[in-house]
Amino acid sequence: MLSKLVIRRSSSYFVPYAYYQKLSARDKATYRRSDAVERIALRNASQLVPIVQALQAALEQDNQRLLRQMSQQLLNEITGFLETPPVRIKVLARRPSDDAEELHGLYEPTEGSDQAVITVWMRTAAQRRLVAFKTFLRTVLHETCHHLDYEWLKLEESFHTEGFFKRESSLFKQLTRSRRMEQQSLELG
Ligand SMILES: [Zn+2]
User: How far apart are the CA of 80 and the centre of ligand 1, in A?
Assistant: First the structure.
């Protein structure tokens, strides 16, 4: 039985998350397409450094309006570069939660003429502390990857696959790596 779940790829084995087994044949095909793409190359990543820096400063200064502006600008650059429809971002104050879990981010796809919307929060639910910069950026990029699944990869559904998380990490690394390089070159003078 297990062998059915192991699909050979060129150099590695496809081992899906457990929920894969419950998907329809059509969704399984979408899952596999999602899993196969591991990277989103942002060739303009180094140009996005000042935006990512301004975003971090706005979060650390607890400036909700500026944080929303910078987050929106980052998304505009990413969707512009990848030539997908834009996505609007809402930055709200405190994360909603129930006893079981705390919501970090939310993606609502395009409906009719309405633009797709990402919602993220600045503060944790329990402690009401500001969310750490890396967590905030990761959340924004995670929700962006849902948008890109529909609009860039043209998938019917956006599943959490290994490929999905690798795409999220690839965006994160590119945006923070060039930021480190920038900081180093500033330090070097
Ligand atoms: Zn998600």
Answer: 22
Higher-confidence position of 11 and 3: 11
Helix, strand and coil in the chain, % to nearest 5:
55, 15, 30
C-alpha 24 to ligand 1 mean position (Å) = 20
SS3 sequence, 124-139?
Answer: CCCCCCECCHHHHHHH
**Span from the CA of 143 to the centroid of ligand 1 (angstroms):** 6
Domain extent listing, the chain: 44-179
| Confidence grade of residue 15 (pLDDT, cut at 50, 70, 90) | confident
Cα of 112 from ligand 1 centre, angstroms: 22
